[in-house]
Amino acid sequence: ALFSWLFLGMEKLVACPYKRPNALCRLICFPWAGGGTSQLAQWGKLFSSSIEVSSVRLPGRESRLKEPFPKDMTTAVNEITSILVEELQEKPFAFFGHSFGSYISFAVALHLKEKYGLEPIHLFVSGAHAPNSEAFRPIKSIPISDTEDEDILTYIRILGGTPSELLQNEDIKKHLILTFREDIRLLQTFSFEKAERNIPFSCDITCFNGSEDKPHDLEAWHDLTSGDISFYKLPGGHFYLLEPSNEIFLTKHITRCIENAGL
């Protein structure tokens, strides 16, 4: 029964269209606010057979549409780790998160480390501040419940990344606004205070950003790992990663980092 619960849990939580049971490493992707698994799960076809790519699906979207949104970050992180932990103990894994997904991947990695002593071999973050930086704090004070739908929609449009034809459909548009709202609210329940002298990670961290995106505070990542930190700017705005040429750079670079981790 435990096996079937885990299997059903995996199927629900994780989209993995390109299964590679013999892969040396799993790359688990965490999408942006309001996002689903469709784009990042498709990365699977860009990687070689040594890396299996999957994308995490939070409640309230896609096949989990009928489920309530997680009430806070702890709830979301506990669900993700309890379902993933079995698999993550089997073979090395790396995380990739974009924007909101960077913060989720960080929170999941932190929980895995603290509770299970497990750590990704590499953390890839994109379009996000270091979660311990001053720049992350204003996110906490966005009055998300008082913000008008129209303002959220404008912000989603400015960020890009959402095909405009989706925003033509009233139901899809409504649900996207709701999901975005809930994801920001989730982020506001995330508190990370780094303890003095305690460096949580030892893995390398790579930060990717779009050259036209608003600048992110990345320096503070240095305090979060004893591993190496590298920074890359790729041409484009907040959703630079959806450009095919950038996708190629990202997949090649991520592959090289994983292979250099000496699996």
TrEMBL record:
Keywords recorded for this protein, A-Z: Fatty acid biosynthesis, Fatty acid metabolism, Hydrolase, Lipid biosynthesis, Lipid metabolism
Keyword Lipid metabolism found: yes
Pfam families noted in UniProt: Thioesterase
Catalytically driven reaction(s): (9Z)-octadecenoyl-[ACP] + H2O = (9Z)-octadecenoate + holo-[ACP] + H(+)
Database matches in SUPFAM superfamilies: alpha/beta-Hydrolases (SSF53474)
Residue ranges annotated for the Thioesterase domain, each copy included: 26-246
EC annotation from Swiss-Prot or TrEMBL: 3.1.2.14
GO molecular function annotations of the record: fatty acyl-[ACP] hydrolase activity
GO BP, sorted A to Z: medium-chain fatty acid biosynthetic process
PANTHER family linked to this entry: S-ACYL FATTY ACID SYNTHASE THIOESTERASE, MEDIUM CHAIN, THIOESTERASE
Similarity section: Belongs to the thioesterase family.
Protein name according to UniProt: S-acyl fatty acid synthase thioesterase, medium chain
Native organism taxonomy: Eukaryota, Metazoa, Chordata, Craniata, Vertebrata
Gene responsible for this protein: Sast
